[in-house]
Specification:
This protein is mostly helical. The protein has six helices and no strands.
């Protein structure tokens, strides 16, 4: 289904999913995401996300959560990065905010 083999892949998948909640990824958001993967890998992740339903994306996140974020601290770091991504384009998207709230529940379960 996906080609998530590293923590960087996983973080980028999740951050891209959040960034696309409002149907557009700003340059500021893309810059944050590209701190974790190459531009080529980002393109692969984006194409994968374009072909998955929200349900499938959430399953991917749940499936890999423990593998790549084994500690509460690592999960909190990612939540902090999601918040940074949310603020990056200076546009307060209700869709992104709600996505982050839902993902927090998944990450902290």
């Amino acid at each position: 289904m996906t080609n998530i083999t590293t923590k960087g892949d996983f973080v980028s998948f999740l951050l891209t999913y959040v960034a696309e909640a409002d149907y557009r990824v700003s340059e500021e958001e893309k810059t944050i995401i590209l701190q974790h993967v190459s531009l080529e890998k980002y393109g692969q992740i984006k194409r994968t996300l374009d072909h998955l339903s929200d349900f499938e994306c959430l399953n991917v996140i749940s499936l890999h959560r423990d593998e790549f974020l084994p500690t509460l601290d690592s999960r909190m770091e990612l939540i902090d990065e999601m918040e940074l991504l949310y603020a990056a384009d200076h546009k307060q998207s209700v869709l992104e905010r709600n996505m982050i709230l839902g993902l927090k529940k998944i990450l902290l379960a």
